[in-house]
Amino acid sequence: MLLAIIPTIFGQYIFNLLLKSIGATTVSVGIIGEPVLAIVLAYLLLGETMSLFQLLGGIITLLGMGMYFWSKSLKYNIQNK
């Protein structure tokens, strides 16, 4: 029961705090990484197996997130010069 309630309440609370400062699109892109992190943690901590499709999908997801955050930082740097 606590595993369902605590992450939901605190997770939504943190997302709402982040929305005030960094914007909805950035928070949404960050949320996309949550399943990838869950797969990696299950592999490392619980000894779960990772399929080739999970590995490839995780890499593609992280590359997409990295591209978004990198372009966002470039745009921020250009605007602040």
Describe the model.
It is flat and about 50 Å long. It has four helices and no strands. The chain is mainly alpha-helical and 81 residues long. The longest helix is centred in the last third of the chain and has 28 residues. Helix 1 runs antiparallel to helix 2 and helix 2 runs antiparallel to helix 4.
Strand content: under 5%
Total helix count? 4
| Run of helices and strands | HHHH
Distance between the termini: 50 Å
* Mean pLDDT level: 87
Major β-sheet annotation: none
Any idea what the radius of gyration is? 16 Å
- Overall shape: flat
Tell me the number of strands. Answer: 0
Helix-strand makeup class: mainly alpha
Low-confidence regions = none
Helix content: over 70%
